Request: fold
Amino acid sequence: MKEIKTKCIERPSFVEDCFCIQRFDDNECRAVWDNNKARFIEIANDIVHELFNDPYVCDDSEDSYPRKSIVTGEWYVGQVSSFKQDGKILVLFECRCLGHGKNGAEDYYGINQWFEQDENGEWVSSYYDTEAIGC
Reply:
């Protein structure tokens, strides 16, 4: 099957502000997001790419969701939260993936990703979950 190329884009004009709220416990949590946003997006894009190109996750069978023929490969950052828990700063953000809809690109599939620092201080994706969000 054809490979889906993925990339993070700027928030599309049809997206309402309420889908892109940012919440930070304090200035330190905000600084983590601001200073590492590019790295979080890079890691997230790798996961989006992996999911959309995994035939066990994304194909074109009738009962498949997401469907490979619908995903565009483009996604944008939705809601962002950064907070402290058990002495660590955690970052959660939503990848809002676009699909081919009736009127062009539309929200289609959500991937919520959790990030934390590993023992070397590197930011890593520690968990993700998915959700249907449109089309």
Notes: Helices lie at 27-52. The two ends are 22 Å apart (CA to CA). The mean pLDDT is 92.
